[in-house]
Amino acid sequence: MSSADSLEDIRLSAARAYNKNVDDVSQERSRKLTQSRMLTENDIDALAVLEYAAQDILMKYHAAMRQMEVRLETLDQDLKLRQRRNPIHHVESRMKSIPSIFEKLERYGKSSTLEAMEEHIMDIAGLRVIVSYIQDAYDILHYLKHQDDLTVVTVKDYITSPKPNGYRSLHLIVRIPVYFLDKKEDIPVEIQIRTIAMDFWASLEHDLKYKALRMIEGVDAPAELKECSRIIEQVEERMQVLASALEGRSPQAHAVDEARTRTVGEDYLMRHGAPRPPAPPRAPESAPLAGSR
What we know:
By secondary structure, the protein is α+β, with helices and mostly antiparallel strands. The protein has one domain (59-272): 2-Layer Sandwich (Beta Polymerase, domain 2), CATH 3.30.460. It has 10 helices and 5 strands; from the N terminus they run αααβααβαβββαααα. A 5-stranded mixed beta sheet has the order 1-2-5-4-3. Helix 1 (3-20) runs antiparallel to helix 2 (24-36) and helix 7 (196-211) runs antiparallel to helix 8. The N and C termini lie far apart (61 Å). Residues 21-25, 250-256, 258-266 and 268-293 have low confidence and may be disordered.
């Protein structure tokens, strides 16, 4: 076996183990395979070059992810001053690993190169924004769409149209400008916006899908999960009614919000039969500042 084949075998084995979340026995077998494999000097040189080149690229994505995180934090604090509450509960960040990036390129049928990585993989950097209410998810989308230096590339609305298994979330790909010493680049970042309840459901679904090492006896887990998603959706809709009543929007603000709503989520309105304003009115300038949460 050539050194190139040896390195490729290690890369593919690691990618499969990482992305398919195989059982502990298979993972241990994969670790032994890679740990006991004798690497040649060419292998080591190739790994060093790949690590250096990838780190240079991943640095850009990490910078974009951090800038987007700070931007969301700033937006949340501004909304707290104007609306006297924080719509964002918390923000999580993650960077895709090199094995998972190249495994995704394989699934896409693209070449396993760094150029293809930058061209075709839009979710190398990712943020998960956890909010309190469904309304908050669409509000954040609205605010991001109106930031003139930010480009919203794609929107996948799994809240209005859940996935077949019951998964609900709002997925965005945005491009944010990152400034370097001699240039500026618009770097893509994936943003998933979901409520606390949606995140709770997704965490359980992930555990059942990837971490359960044996079948759950006597339980139809997929059917139960889908039913839980339906119940959560109904509860969230009722909670949204209460939250909107608590805000006590004026008729004038309601009309403005209804007009703004037409920019996103028309299918939401058709489904629920009520306006879902994405941009709550500003609080009066004289309004007192809110205390900390």
